[in-house]
Amino acid sequence: MSTPALKGPYWATVRQHRHAAWALTALTAAGLAAVAALRLWVGAPPGSDGPFAFPARAYNLLRLCMEYAGTGLLLLPPLAGAFVAGPMTARELESGTWRLALTQSTTPRAWLGAKVLVAGAVSVVAAAALVLVYRLGWSRVSSTHQLTWADRGPYEATGPVLAAYCLLGVALGVLVGQLVRRTVAAMAVAGLLTGLVLLGLGSLRWSFMPTQTSTIPFGDSTMRLTPPDSLMTDTGLITSSGARLPEYACFERTRNMGDGPADLNVTAWYAEFHPASHYWPTQLIETAVVLALAAAALYAAFRVLRARRG
After folding, report:
1. What is the pTM of this model?
2. 125 and 249 share one domain
3. Same domain, yes or no, for 217 and 191?
4. Model pLDDT for residues 239-286, shown as the tens digit of each residue
């Protein structure tokens, strides 16, 4: 990574943590090469000879890689938080080396600001690059089980929300690093907090927008209830009075999902779902919420800095 254009604490921060930046760059390049090779292999005509024979095997391998990669990218925000909290912040406070920066005409605010800006810029660029690499491979297998647009992992790894969570990790990292001031402990706390926010908002994201409801006559195939690329959140039965029953209400009595007892007066199936068109609005809403949390954590971090070091 070139640093001639950087000065003062920014140059020092990049120089100090250049190995981590290069490792992240190498990881992104390796991922791009692997995904590009698999896409090329998948596109080979069936039965072709040479190194790209058996494209069906490549498809299965690509699908497996995308499944694990989606889960792996969920670790990026907690890792960003842990790195900023530990090696970038707490370690310098723990060892006292941060005072050396203050002897170079640098204020505490500039010292911390350099860490925030450098870590934030690297995190956003890395997240954007990894999202593009992931989408390159995911677009080929996106209609398969556990790899749809709404699944945990592919959802975060294909949109701007991943970069937002990385910024949240950076903000929590500089806050926790100042409060804990012990490298290993700060890394654990920041990573855990970032992960908890990621999991918590992930469990709430499908309540950001109202669901759509569809109905079909009782006896029709339930495959017609929702579009094939939608996320179903609830399904059940509707009686002649308009009351809703659980989807298993008939099965409990007749052991047949399509055979309803006369006294229940079941007339239709219903389903509540999110269509694929809700993907981008949900991404943008969640990104805005995460960025607001990151801004609050960053504000708290600078308040702590001011209260402790002026």
Report:
1. 0.89
2. no
3. no
4. 998 999 998 888 888 888 778 888 888 999 999 999 999 999 999 999
